[in-house]
Structure formats: C-alpha cells, structure tokens
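We were asked to recover a plausible sequence for a given structure. The inputs and outputs are reproduced exactly as logged, with field labels preserved.

PROBLEM: sequence recovery
POSITIONS: 62
GIVEN STRUCTURE:
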C-alpha cells in the first residue's frame, strides 16, 4: 500500500473513532463525561482532517 493509501486509511479509522466517541457522548448521562467525549471526538476529527488534507486550512479560497 502506498503512503497516501495508508494516510487515507488512518484518517478513516480516526473518523470512525471520532464517530464512536460522539455516539458515546450522546448516551452519556454525566454532563462532564459527555463533554470530555465530545471534546475528544472533535480533536480526533480535526486531526484526521489535517492528516487527510481535507481540513479547512487545506481548502483553496480561490
């Protein structure tokens, strides 16, 4: 597998993990736990966007 393919696969895995954390946050009854899970999901999603080159900082404004 190419380096680009490995990066895409890693980014996809990170997005899946972020979704799992978001889902867990929705089910959490403790507000602090919910907040921690949401923040962790957001950080992982942002990192996956940076690694895959799809984050806001990588979009050409024209």
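RECOVERED SEQUENCE:
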């Amino acid at each position: 597998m190419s380096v680009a393919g490995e990066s895409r696969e890693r980014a996809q895995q990170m997005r899946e993990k972020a979704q799992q954390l978001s889902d867990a946050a929705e089910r959490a009854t403790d507000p602090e736990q919910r907040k921690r899970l949401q923040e962790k999901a957001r950080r992982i999603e942002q990192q996956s966007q940076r690694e895959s080159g799809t984050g806001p900082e990588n979009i050409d404004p024209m």
